Each structure stands twice: as structure tokens, then as C-alpha cells.
């Protein structure tokens, strides 16, 4: 158990100190296309801290919205979107002002759409669709996933 916590801690440090800065730079550059099919960049001001946070998120587009998913136990950024709030989103090399909010009302259908589009990444996140024998019951791990809907204002540059 202690070893697994150490591994998780090490992976988290690599993510925050190496992967996130690399993806932030890449998603804002002309080379964004390398990862833009899977990652978008979200930037917001923390509701309590007042500090600006900017980080990559795995996403899926649906009806003009950007649907981001994250494991609740591993992150807490999604809590800033329990109420609708303004943020910035970089999507496919373009920056937009957007409104972000938890999408609990549609969580299971949004997760199913995500998994259908990004199967491997969905499995990495630990999400899935309902088992065939219980088509109306969501996959067990889906309740551990926060789903945030970002609606960009496409009029912003």
C-alpha cells in the first residue's frame, strides 16, 4: 500500500512538473495539432484562492460544447465549476472565453459519447459504458468521474 502511494505521488509530480507544462506550451503553439484531438487547455481563477490555474484536460466535443472528464479522487479543479463560471479554453489552437459547469444531469450519456469517440483514453480515465446485461445502469466507475461542460463564446478570438 505504501509503495503504491509513493508511485501515485511520483506520477502526480511528473504530471504537474513535466507533462502539464509541456502540454500547456504545446496547446498554445502552432504545433497544437499533435495533441489537440485529445487535449484542450482550461484556464480559470480559483473561487477561493483568486489564483489563476491553467492545465490540459481530456475532452470530447458535443453540440458546440467541450466536455472534459477527470477522476474525482485524483483532481479537485472540477469543484470550481459546481456553479457556472467564466473561464478561458484553448481548443485546436484557438483561445475562447467560455462558461464552465458540472454536467451531472447528463453524466452517463456524456461519458458514453466520450468512450465511443476516445475508447482507449476513456479506459485510461477508468470510465465506460453500461454492461450489456444491464443497459440502463451506468458503469460502476462512472460515479467517480467529474464531467464538466464548457460552452465557448465563438465570437471571442
Q: How does this model look, in words?
A:
The structure is a single chain. This protein is an alpha+beta fold and 157 residues long. It has a single domain, classed as Electron Transport, Fmn-binding Protein, Chain A (Pnp Oxidase, Chain A, Roll), CATH 2.30.110.10. 29% of the residues lie in helices and 32% in strands. The protein has three helices and six strands. It has a six-stranded antiparallel beta barrel with strand order 1-2-3-6-5-4. About 8% of the residues have low confidence. This is DUF385 domain-containing protein.
Features of this protein?
6 strands, 32% strand, globular, 3 helices, Pnp Oxidase, Chain A
CATH homology group: Electron Transport, Fmn-binding Protein, Chain A
CATH topology: Pnp Oxidase, Chain A
Gyration radius from CA atoms, angstroms:
16 Å
Separation of the first and last Cα atoms: 48 Å
Structural class: alpha+beta
Number of strands: 6
Order of helices and strands: HEEEEEHHE
Q: Architecture, CATH level 2?
A: Roll
Shape: globular
Q: Strand portion, in percent?
A: 25-35%
Helix segment tally: 3
Give the averaged pLDDT, no decimals. Answer: 80
What profile does the largest beta sheet have?
Answer: 6 strands, antiparallel, barrel
CATH class equals Mainly Beta
Give the domain tally. 1
What's the helical proportion of residues? 25-40%
Summarize the structure.
This protein has 157 residues and is of the alpha+beta class. The protein contains three helices and six strands.
Amino acid at each position: 500500500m505504501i509503495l503504491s502511494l509513493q508511485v501515485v505521488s511520483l506520477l502526480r509530480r511528473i504530471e504537474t512538473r513535466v507533462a502539464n507544462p509541456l502540454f500547456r506550451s504545446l496547446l498554445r503553439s502552432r504545433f497544437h495539432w499533435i495533441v489537440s484531438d485529445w487535449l484542450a487547455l482550461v484556464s480559470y481563477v480559483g473561487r477561493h484562492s483568486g489564483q489563476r490555474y491553467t492545465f490540459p484536460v481530456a475532452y470530447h466535443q458535443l453540440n458546440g460544447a467541450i466536455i472534459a472528464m477527470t477522476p474525482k479522487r485524483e483532481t479537485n479543479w472540477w469543484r470550481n465549476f459546481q456553479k457556472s463560471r467564466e473561464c478561458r479554453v484553448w481548443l485546436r489552437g484557438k483561445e475562447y472565453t467560455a462558461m464552465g459547469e458540472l454536467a451531472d444531469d447528463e453524466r452517463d450519456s456524456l461519458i458514453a459519447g466520450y468512450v465511443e469517440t476516445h475508447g482507449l483514453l476513456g479506459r485510461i480515465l477508468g470510465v465506460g459504458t453500461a454492461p450489456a446485461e444491464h443497459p440502463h445502469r451506468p458503469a460502476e466507475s462512472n460515479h467517480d468521474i467529474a464531467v464538466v461542460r464548457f460552452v465557448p463564446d465563438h465570437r471571442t478570438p
